[in-house]
Amino acid sequence: MTFNDNANVGGSTARRRGGGAAIAGGGIAGIGAIAVLLFQLFTGQDISGLVGGGGGAVDSGEATRIEQCQSGADANARDDCRLAAGQVVLDEFWEGEVQGYTPPQLFVVDGATNTQCGTASNQTGPFYCPPEQAVYVDPTFFGLLRQQFDATAGPLAQLYVLAHEYGHHVQNIAGIMQEHSDRGTGPDSDGVRLELQADCFAGAFIGDMTEQVDEDGVAYLKEPTQQQIADAINAAQTVGDDHIQQQSGGGVNPETWTHGSSEQRQRWFETGYRNGVASCETFGIPGGSL
Questions:
Q1: Which of 103, 141, 257, 260 is the least buried, fewest Cβ under 10 Å from its Cβ?
Q2: Is residue 65 over pLDDT 60?
Q3: Please, are residues 231 and 11 in contact by the beta-carbon 8 Å criterion?
Q4: 282 Cβ neighbours under 8 A, 6+ residues apart
Q5: Who contacts 214 (Cβ-Cβ below 8 Å, separation ≥6)?
Q6: What are phi and psi of 112, to 5 degrees?
């Protein structure tokens, strides 16, 4: 998935935060933190050494604007700019879907930074912090997906990850998160249902995003290829609870699931992609239908 080079993606409010050095450890209470965090939960291992954690300082200072991100060509050239451009398109999409929509703040993390939900870094993965109504993403996380979890993590997969976290923001401002706050664990828990719905919301965005145009009528994004769609689905599968448990070398234990299986995550992504936001009802259905 690539942006059209001449698309106008200026106007992003994305900000950069971080101290430039990832840290070892760092708790997190945000929604949607994936991959590395799940691996540690299921195995009890601290894998910070594997992913380049060091012991550097955590930054909590002032955020700075992401500069020189005005065109689709900029977004195609740089991961941070792609995320900033993705924010522009995601906000336009959800403004058309949710009455009274208010956008989250997007922070592109450089190394590590403190948040109200714990430390944001490539070790915790992208996440949404409800009390801040903010999404945190360290672009180097996509490299970790490739190295540690056999994901391709290309441009469309990166937009899927960002769109998933935006899905949690929609759940927050729409009251879904508050209505289903007893998340727990297990294959039909509210926690899993929230995650699968966020996957479905991400699929709905990706299915619609080539229809969105800038102020000059230029489509933001080119039509995705089948390989790019497969890449996004691969990312969804890679962060399935069962896949991560298998990667840990242990058995699959559905009672500890927090995000859903690889098959579920792929299926709900595809449901949203084909049928739109209205199809993303993961609550009120039997657990066997998830």
A1: 103
A2: yes
A3: no
A4: 193, 194, 196, 197, 200, 268, 290
A5: 7, 8, 9, 220
A6: -160, 150
Distance separating alpha carbons of residues 232 and 228, to the nearest angstrom: 6
Integer Cα distance of 55 and 40 in angstroms: 18
Cα–Cα dist 234/248, whole Å: 18
Write out the two tokens for 290.
């998830």
pLDDT at 126: 86
Residues 205, 163: Cα–Cα separation, whole Å: 7
Contact predicate 241/37, CB 8 Å? no
- N-to-C CA span, the chain: 28
- Mean per-residue pLDDT of the chain: 80
Residue 86: pLDDT band (50, 70, 90) is: very high
What amino acid occupies position 3? Answer: F
Burial class (CB in 10 A: 0-12, 13-18, 19+), 55: exposed
Tell if the pTM clears 0.70, that is, is over it.
Answer: yes
Residue 22 token pair: 């990832």
Q: What is the pLDDT of residue 104?
A: 97
Give the span between the Cα atoms of 211 and 206, in whole angstroms: 10
In DSSP notation, 148-182 reads HH-----HHHHHHHHHHHHHHHHHHHTTHHHHT--
**Which tokens is 63 given?**
């955020």
Structure-block tokens of residue 109 = 């993390």
Task: Report the run of H or E that residue 23 belongs to, with start and end.
Answer: none
The helix (run of H) or strand (run of E) holding residue 39 is: helix 36-43
Q: Return the structure tokens found at 278.
A: 């209205």
